[in-house]
Specification:
The chain has 2 domains: 108 residues, no CATH class; 66 residues, Orthogonal Bundle (Recoverin, domain 1). It is 82% helix and 0% strand. Helix 1 runs antiparallel to helix 2, helix 2 runs antiparallel to helix 3 and helix 5 crosses helix 6. The longest helix has 94 residues. The protein is rod-shaped.
Length: 242
């Protein structure tokens, strides 16, 4: 009679546990899904683990109740068995929680690493863009400077041409004179040395001596700086020294 009472108590506990699981599942179906996917996944894993533990406890209680009803186990033995099973369940739960914690840490580490990689790539892209923009600004500034220098040189040439034409009349072909001067200016330094002038003169008269070249050059070098400027060259061509 006592064993039958114990078995009935166990079955009542089993029925209450089943009712609790059923209610829990009902509430689970009514609950709205979470917005964060990761949180939802973790919550689902925890709920699955809780259901598994509850089902294992119910199964153990059922086996214990059946054993008591069949006279194979006393209430004390059943209590000891329940305590052992609860300890095992608690240990499994602790192991699962530790595994879940480690997994969460690994995922967080991976997330941080990926975030750091993406940030580094963004910073590198921003740095390259800044360098490209700076290079473009330098290039534009250099182009403006070249254009300004070219414009200044063009104006200077026009002023020089106007002055020479006013001085020598319409006879001066500035373009042709510039071309001749550029050919004679072998090192392109903007003036003619006596050697360059000698080479230019000997194209017309190969027999010209060094003394003759020196005499003509010194007379043409009006400012006595040892070189012949373009203006001195024009004067030499259109008003050769006697």
């Amino acid at each position: 009679m006592r064993k039958k009472s114990e078995a009935e108590n166990m079955m009542r506990q089993l029925s209450a546990s089943l009712s609790e699981i059923s209610l829990t599942k009902g509430f689970e179906n009514l609950s709205a899904p979470t917005e964060e996917e990761e949180a939802a996944r973790k919550a689902a894993e925890e709920e699955q683990a809780a259901r598994k533990d509850a089902e294992e406890k119910i199964l153990a209680m059922r086996r214990t109740a059946e054993a008591i009803a069949a006279g194979k186990m006393t209430e004390a033995e059943a209590a000891a068995r329940r305590a052992m099973e609860e300890e095992q369940a608690a240990r499994r739960k602790a192991e699962e929680e530790e595994a879940s914690r480690q997994k969460a840490e690994e995922e967080e580490t991976a997330r941080k690493k990926e975030a750091a990689r993406m940030k580094a790539e963004e910073e590198e892209a921003a740095r390259k863009k800044a360098e490209e923009q700076a290079a473009a600004r330098r290039k534009a500034a250099e182009a403006r400077k070249r254009a300004e220098e070219e414009e200044t040189a063009r104006k200077r040439e026009m002023e020089e041409a106007a002055r020479l034409m006013a001085k020598y009349g319409g006879e001066v072909d500035i373009v042709a004179m510039k071309a001749q001067f550029a050919k004679a200016d072998l090192n392109q330094d903007g003036v003619l040395s006596i050697e360059e002038m000698a080479a230019f003169l000997r194209k017309g008269d190969p027999s010209m001596t060094d003394d003759e070249v020196r005499l003509l050059f010194d007379k043409a070098d009006k400012n006595n700086d040892g070189t012949m400027s373009f203006e001195e060259f024009v004067a030499f061509i259109h008003s050769p020294p006697s």
